[in-house]
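Note to self: keep these together.
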Amino acid sequence: MEAQKQGNPAVVGLAGFGLTTLVLQFHNVGWMGVGPVIWLGLIFGGLAQMIAGLQEKGTGNNFGYCAFTAYGAFWIALAMLLIGNQFNIYVSSKTDIGWFLVAWTAFTAILWIGSMRIHSALAITFTLLLAGFVLLDLAHFGYPQLTVVAGYELMVCALSAWYIMAHLIFADVFGRDVLPVGSPWIKA
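Structure:
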């Protein structure tokens, strides 16, 4: 009996991460308000990405399990933080948010190292994500103009995540590798 083909949860995780990151950066560069960021952060970047991460557990992919589940939790926490500030519940100062981002920067640094063992496209995505977090850290601790720089830089990060998503989807539907992702930066 032939095993039933399973979907790859990474395509949903990458879609949610990329789309929510992209829309947050539209806000950070001043193109739109924060409302859509909150709803995407709760549903697509948060819930959908977290479900994808939990599904990665079943595939035995610890990197995907950790990354999608954790960044799903990041989006939910960020959305709740913004809601808390809006409704004066557990208000977080700019410094509080800065330390929140510093912790996520350290977490991202660990995954950045792991990404270099997978393939170039993922290493590029995590390099851009780490750089974006560092820029946002600096923006929250005295250099607010860097929020816009981080916004444009993280738009490229979001599109890089979508490139990997497209690589996975196209490889499945075309039955061959259409979009190359490159070799790992760290071998053996």
